[in-house]
Write a structure and sequence with these properties.
With about 100 residues, the protein is of the alpha+beta class. The chain has one domain. About 45% of the residues lie in helices and about 20% in strands. The protein contains three helices and four strands. It has a four-stranded mixed sheet, with helices on one face. Strand 3 and strand 4 form a beta hairpin. Helix 1 crosses helix 3. The longest helix is centred in the C-terminal third of the chain and has 23 residues. It is globular.
């Protein structure tokens, strides 16, 4: 069960690691510092969440611009079943961004 913000981040890392492994990509947590220093490159995939625990998955075509998919996440208290159900929409968001990149 996920109760704390740290556990929530760990859950996202676990889910994106599994999705990334299946799709042959890496999804990393967004870093404002990397954005500020123009370190994001074509094909980089990032995720972030806001104070309402809503998740954003982004694909970077260059160092400044990005396309994102926004997902409504389970509440901060997440059961194993919620986590399993949430993996599908996360996977679909990553797939959609990858498809847009290749188009």
């Amino acid at each position: 069960m996920v109760v704390t913000e740290i556990q929530y981040i760990e859950m996202l890392e676990r889910l994106f690691a599994r999705i990334g492994s299946e799709l042959g990509v890496t999804v990393t947590r967004y870093s404002f510092g990397k954005f500020q220093h123009h370190e994001y490159r074509l094909g980089d995939l990032t995720y972030d969440y806001d104070s309402s625990f809503q998740v954003k998955v982004c694909n970077w075509p260059n160092t400044v611009n990005h396309r994102c998919e926004h997902l409504e996440s389970p509440t901060p208290i997440v059961t194993r079943e919620d986590e399993t159900r949430f993996e599908g929409p996360l996977r679909e968001a990553v797939k959609k961004l990858l498809h847009e990149e290749s188009s």
